[in-house]
């Protein structure tokens, strides 16, 4: 991807409700568009069975996470669903942008709002499900959360869906390839679709 006229890359923030497929879209972009720098978030939650440390997330304990917060090492961070902390390490993103690479952050709504406050020139994309019923089906089908956790996540998703107007563009995740290619097209063109 080309850098803007200042020689810096562009920061693109992808957010949306739980189970909408942010991780799936980000994985597709990482595989099919290797010129995009993909930021790997840090979390205190335990890895799911198919997750690898340093690929989907950097998994750390609470003490390490809190040390990094105190040191100012996160671009954004939040306690998500009242259970685990997530954050975007600042250094790798800033280095990629300085090198002229476009960077993609896959984060939650709280994190997107923090990035908006500190980096208002970033491009913000909201990923939405084709329907509420499809979102519920995806969350239940994942089979990684118990009933209480699913209910917490669905309550959060209802609030997150209402934030759609805060974003520069909206993509419906009804097909992974199509939605991923639309995301990359928006990243490269800089136009909005709302």
TrEMBL record:
One of its GO terms (cellular component) is cytosol. ATP binds at residues 16-23. Keywords: ATP-binding, Cytoplasm, Kinase, Nucleotide-binding, Transferase. The keyword ATP-binding applies. Its EC number is 2.7.4.8. It catalyses: GMP + ATP = GDP + ADP. Residues 9-188 form the Guanylate kinase-like domain. Pfam families: Guanylate_kin (PF00625). The keyword Transferase applies. Coiled coil: none annotated. It comes from the Bacteria. GO terms for molecular function: ATP binding; GMP kinase activity. It is found in: Cytoplasm. Essential for recycling GMP and indirectly, cGMP. Belongs to the guanylate kinase family. This is Guanylate kinase.
């Amino acid at each position: 991807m080309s850098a803007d006229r200042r020689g810096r890359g562009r920061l693109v923030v992808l957010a949306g409700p739980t189970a909408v497929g942010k991780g799936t879209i980000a994985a597709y972009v990482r595989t099919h568009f290797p010129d995009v720098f993909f930021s790997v978030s840090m979390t205190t939650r335990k890895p799911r069975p198919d997750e690898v440390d340093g690929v989907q997330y950097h998994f750390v304990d609470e003490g390490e996470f809190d040390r990094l917060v105190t040191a100012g090492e996160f671009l954004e961070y939040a306690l998500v669903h009242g259970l685990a902390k997530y954050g975007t390490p600042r250094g790798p993103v800033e280095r990629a942008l300085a090198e002229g690479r476009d960077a993609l952050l896959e984060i939650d709504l709280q994190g997107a709002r923090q990035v908006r406050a500190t980096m208002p020139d970033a491009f913000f994309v909201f990923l939405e499900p084709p329907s509420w019923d499809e979102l519920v089906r995806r969350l239940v089908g994942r089979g990684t959360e118990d009933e209480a956790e699913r209910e917490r996540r669905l309550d959060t998703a209802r609030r997150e869906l209402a934030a759609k107007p805060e974003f520069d563009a909206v993509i419906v995740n009804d097909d992974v390839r199509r939605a991923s290619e639309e995301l990359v097209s928006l990243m490269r063109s800089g136009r909005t679709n709302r």
